[in-house]
Design goal:
Length: 260
Amino acid sequence: MKITTWNINSLAVRLPQVLDWLAANPVDVLCLQELKLSDDKFPLQALQAAGYHSAVFGQKNYNGVAILSRTPARDVIKNIAGFADEQSRVIAATLDSPLGELRVVNGYFVNGQAPGTDKFAYKMRWLTGLRDWLVGELAAHPNLVLLGDFNITADDRDTYDPDGLRETIHHTSEERAHFQALIDLGLVDAFRLFAQAEKSYSWWDYREMAFRRNLGLRIDHILVRSGLQPSVEHCAIDRLPRKNERPSDHAPVTLTLKSL
DNA sequence: ATGACGGTGTGGCACCGA
């Protein structure tokens, strides 16, 4: 069972790349962020033809998330219950898997711009709302995976310049405390369960040839319920799509689960 | 260096992302 998260930075632009990637990587679930289109513009039929059902929470221009799956999604929830939000950032769904029912929570976390700004304050409130809501989700769903574009580096290994970028956006103590609060709900960072190459990143700026120089951040994460840990077979970043023409600035990250 | 690149519509520039 393979589950992937990928911020595609406009599905309208990147649909051909998504279809190509799925043809080469026929994962069971693909969680997308930054669709940048409304529900009525979502390419439901093209993805259906590729063999995927879609649960979609779109938004014109910005944000937008979707869960593509081989089997239909159930109990779909959009955004964080109890947290009023104008922006389409979270979609959760229950899927059948060889491990039983799997709850998938797909998030496009707030960027936050810079510490001290209104957007940063929104990020902090949003992260608190997410955590509070997940307490109930975890109580209701034993097998839960939280994944997406977190817009947070978990620690210094996740950034190309830990000293130069210390306490800047994606690197602040407050953001990392929120990341830890999610871990403390009983989740584990699947990527770090395995030996990984140094300087493993999931995002690179479009500017300054950042990808070629590997000046990146690891901000796309997959957290799994610690009870699922024995089932986690692998977790890896696929840098290949970043080499496409007109790539997303993010690379897909894939979790492989095995039946025990 | 409030830069850079690439997405969007309010468009021929401004705003946003990370």
